[in-house]
Recover the amino acids of this structure.
């Protein structure tokens, strides 16, 4: 542990260089953070005192990355509101079902077309179904789209995915790791996840007067301790009952967004969101070994194509049901196309169960491609939509001219 401060300092310096380079090129910063992490990953050289493998500090950097996910989702919750979420409850349930059904079915078909065994097909379907909440949150904040009309559907799908994830991990772990799965355990896990979310959504409407009084703290130090303690405690409680800690952070933000202290909390969180969020993407890159990716290229490219198609179709259908414009609907599919931490979890279950070794490099390359492509597609969503609309008519011009309030922010 003698050089852990040096290693962390080196990691942060590399992240800063990647950020400066992305700003110079005017490109999304996320791919740069991931790629620099890959470049100094498991097989990086040691030059004097500078060990680019980050052997001693890897657990600390990974933990700092986890904090980054919490801050990203917490901030995203602050930018939203429980009221908007409740009003869109039915639309979100239908939209989330559409999204999961389309992407999961396409994942199963992909595994079958690749002639994989049954268990491997189930793992592939899990890898290709769940989007990265961290990347989606980062993109929405960076592009200032948190107030867009489609954002409530995007957040709703993220939370809907978490309920599906709780159920599916229970089933998949049982099938892959033990050869069986308890129906009662699966149902209990799903109900606990759903109940946890509903509790906090209802709390956000009922506890506002109490929270306004409780957070009326003059000392900035004590105010920060109360907010951070609440955030980590609720995220941790969520994790213990199989709700992703990131969703716990999102729900905490949604609740506190209803209080009169929202702006003060937002100002407090901003620097932590930016710093730890950058560390998360760097840490994610560290986990990918470039030398193992070659054998999975064609599998991963096929999965990327399937995901792009499935996401776009699901976004259009979910948005149409919610009464959004074609442009806003297209933006749903383009924004949540990124894959990340949850896909890697699925692949790790396959590894723990002794399934085909191809699953690990397949997931890593697939996630890397979409982690780079997703933010780019979101940033250029206007151009992508215009290009697709020339090929396939996507909008009903007369109808959408009557509902300008539903139009997407073109910025």
């Amino acid at each position: 542990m003698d050089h852990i401060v040096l290693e962390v300092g080196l990691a942060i310096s590399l992240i800063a260089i990647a950020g400066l380079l992305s700003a110079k090129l005017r490109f999304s910063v996320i791919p740069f953070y991931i790629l620099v992490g890959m470049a100094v990953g498991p097989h990086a050289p040691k030059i004097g005192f500078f060990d680019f493998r980050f052997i001693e500090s890897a657990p600390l950097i990974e933990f700092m990355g986890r904090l980054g996910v919490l801050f990203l989702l917490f901030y995203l919750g602050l930018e939203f509101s429980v009221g908007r979420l409740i009003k869109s409850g039915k639309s979100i349930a239908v939209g989330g079902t559409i999204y999961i059904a389309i992407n999961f079915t396409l994942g199963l078909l992909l595994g079958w077309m690749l002639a994989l065994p049954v268990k491997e097909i189930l793992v592939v379907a899990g890898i290709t179904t769940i989007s990265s909440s961290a990347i989606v949150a980062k993109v929405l904040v960076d592009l200032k789209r948190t107030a867009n009309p489609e954002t409530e559907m995007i957040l709703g799908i993220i939370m809907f995915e978490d309920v599906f994830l709780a159920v599916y991990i229970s089933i998949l772990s049982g099938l892959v790791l033990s050869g069986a799965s308890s129906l009662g355990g699966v149902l209990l896990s799903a109900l606990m996840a759903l109940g946890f979310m509903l509790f906090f959504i209802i709390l956000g409407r009922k506890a506002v007067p109490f929270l306004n009084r409780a957070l009326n703290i003059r000392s900035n130090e004590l105010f920060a301790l109360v907010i951070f303690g609440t955030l980590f405690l609720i995220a941790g409680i969520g994790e213990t009952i199989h709700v992703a800690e990131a969703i716990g952070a999102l729900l905490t933000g949604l609740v506190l967004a209803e209080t009169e202290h929202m702006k003060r909390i937002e100002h407090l969180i901003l620097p932590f969101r930016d710093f730890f969020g950058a560390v998360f993407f760097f840490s994610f890159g560290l986990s990918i070994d470039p030398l193992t990716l070659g054998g999975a290229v064609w599998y991963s490219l096929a999965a990327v194509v399937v995901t792009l198609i499935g996401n776009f179709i699901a976004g259009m259908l979910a948005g149409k049901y919610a009464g959004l414009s074609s442009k806003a609907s297209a933006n749903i599919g383009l924004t949540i196309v990124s894959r990340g931490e949850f896909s890697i979890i699925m692949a790790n279950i396959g590894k723990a169960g002794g399934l085909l070794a191809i699953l690990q490099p397949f997931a890593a390359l697939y996630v890397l491609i979409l982690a780079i492509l997703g933010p780019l597609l979101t940033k250029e969503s206007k151009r992508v939509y215009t290009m697709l609309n020339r090929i396939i008519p996507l909008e009903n011009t007369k109808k959408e001219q009557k509902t300008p309030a539903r139009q997407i922010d073109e910025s």
